[in-house]
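Backbone shape codes:
***
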Amino acid sequence: MDKIVFFEIEEWEKYPLQQSFPDKQILFSNRKAQDETAQELLDSQIISTFIYSTLTKETLAKFPNLKLVATRSTGFDHIDMAYCKEKGITVVNVPSYGAHSVAEHTFSLILAISRKLIPTIDRSRRGKFEIEDLKGFDLNGKTLGVVGAGKIGTKVIEIALCFGMKVLVYTGTSSKDKIVHENLKYVFFDELLEGSDIITLHVPLTEETHYMINRDNISDMKKGCILINTARGPLIETAAILDALESGILKAAGLDVLEEECFLKEERELLTDEYLKKCDIKTQLLNHVLLDRDDVIYTSHNAFNSDESLNEILHTTVANINSYLEGKPQNVANLST
């Protein structure tokens, strides 16, 4: 019987994993794979890790019977892929998760701004019920600019169309994957900036997307625009947000991420003790001037954090392992290495 070992395991992950492999020998370790010395674990055929297990050639060599590495992450740069290919070790990953969660959170931010939910709730809690300066606006008929139409961006587009919004999209997605709708138009980036009432970002952080909204181009936005970011903080130059809010170019900003956050590869990192050790989030956030503004809503990188999103990671990992055991591996990360 193949032995499956899960490293860097959090307590809440154990039960669903145990239930998923009732007929398999399952072992858990809260340690990183490179720190493991127990022979009972080192003779396993299948291991599953998170990103803090640095699976170098030396670490992998400690597992002489290893056949499969199932990383519980999208990224796999913590794994020596060349060594795995040389030794015939299959590597599988979780290509994506939380598309619905992040898309819904995006609209939570938009609605909180459009309906002035936070000041309304705060005032009501203080026993004051005047509404004269709490007038909001409808999303129906407004134009939403969506930057990036991957899995998350596509869900955002679908929700926006249900609200009766017009949608401008800037994306590198191939034409065969594009949504067709009478209220949707694919445009260049500058046209999206100029024509959107609300702009929301759903692209990865790369050299090309770093500061894609900056002090030079934020003035191209429609006056009174609302800016939403649930992707990565450095997509937007912080100084640009502040300048635009002060000048009235931006009416408000809804942010789930900030430029000053610690370097983050996977949202799932935020729930680990390891991340808290390496990153003093509280100090960084307290020092962030945006948090003191009434026209900025910030939700501490929580868009991904739903039961469904976290269970999706485990579900995909379980499916990856079972598919491999059935001889039909899926989500193989080292096919082309």
Q: What stands out?
A: The longest strand covers residues 250-255. The longest helix spans residues 307-325. The radius of gyration is 23 Å.
